[in-house]
Amino acid sequence: MKHIFAIITTGLLAAHTVHAKLNVVATTPELAAIARDIGGDRVEVVSLAKPTEDPHFVDPKPSFVVKLAHADVLVEGGAELEIGWLPPLLEGARNPKLTRIAIAPGIQLLEVPTALDRSKGDVHAMGNPHFMTDPVNGQIAAQRIADELAKRDAAGAETYRANLAKFNARIEAKMAEWRKLLVPFAGKEVVAYHNTWPYFGERFGLKIDLFLEPKPGIPPTPASLAEVMAKMKAEHLRVVIVEPYQNRRTADTVAADTGAVVVPVAQYPGGVKGTDGGYVELIDYIVNALAKGLAK
Ligand SMILES: [Zn+2]
């Protein structure tokens, strides 16, 4: 009898010490990667958007509603990045206990318009929502995630703080190397398909301000492309960057006509080869790919 009691108590103690992991849903894969870095083995993280998907136009699958219904925490970009697909999913999930962590309110947004105007289909009506392309903003996101996870799961506060310190140390160690790689190209202008890169450009001294899209979210037309190509030729612009879900053939045509090179990049870990490792690996890839393209 004594023996059985001992087994039962041990079992109860074991069940008590093995805590359930926090269910974290991130809207996009770079936020998921950072949440994994910060949460470690105290969290289970999934991303709704795939790394090869346009964050403005994510396919809202019914399974997303289920994920949000069972989530403890949602990490989202904000600044209307997910406005086209996230609100109905949240409504369907009916999860009043969900802790929502929006990163944008802590970020100095670029390109904030003086008057809100969505009439022409511009998907950046609140300012540019692609701030995570600047690793310093990645650190702001990591800090925010660590703070909020600690509030939701006080027992893990020490772990989250330690993981945040590790994340910051990795970024800071890389930053000098990244700057050094791009310093030779300071002030150079780069062409992009979509206006995804102003934060990255500002951080590393590049002007990524000419776009194949006439407006964010509006596909190029022959007339808009002709204008871009004329400018590229006049100013000898040599690099066009293109993301996985953008029309590579359009970028190739523009590059062939202007003597430029196409450099594939991505906003999300796993969006291009060699970036599966996470956020730091992604920034590392982008810096190296651009340095190589600009050196040609
Ligand atoms: Zn955009």
Question: What is the secondary structure topology, with strand pairs?
Answer:
Layout: H1 2-17, E1 22-26, H2 29-39, E2 43-47, H3 62-69, E3 73-76, H4 86-93, E4 99-102, H5 135-152, H6 157-182, E5 189-192, H7 198-204, E6 207-211, H8 222-235, E7 239-242, H9 248-258, E8 261-264, H10 279-295
Parallel strand pairs: 1-2, 1-3, 3-4, 5-6, 5-7, 7-8
Helix pairs in contact: 2-5, 2-6, 3-4, 5-6, 6-10
The structure holds zinc ion.
Account of the protein in words:
The structure is a single chain. With 296 residues, the protein is of the alpha/beta class. It has two domains: 14-175, Rossmann fold, CATH 3.40.50.1980; 183-295, 3-Layer(aba) Sandwich (Rossmann fold). 46% of the residues lie in helices and 12% in strands. It has ten helices and eight strands. The protein has helices at residues 2-17, 29-39, 62-69, 86-93, 135-152, 157-182, 198-204, 222-235, 248-258, 279-295, and strands spanning 22-26, 43-47, 73-76, 99-102, 189-192, 207-211, 239-242, 261-264. The strands form two sheets. Strands 2-1-3-4 form a four-stranded parallel β-sheet, with helices on one face. It has a four-stranded parallel β-sheet with strand order 6-5-7-8, with helices on both faces. β3, α4 and β4 (99-102) form a beta-alpha-beta unit. α2 (29-39) crosses α5 (135-152) and α3 (62-69) packs across α4 (86-93). The radius of gyration is 22 Å and the shape is globular. 41% of the residues are buried. The structure holds zinc ion. Zinc ion (ZN) is lined by residues 56, 123-124, 130, 194, 196, 216. Zinc ion binds at residues 56, 123-124, 130, 194, 196, 216.
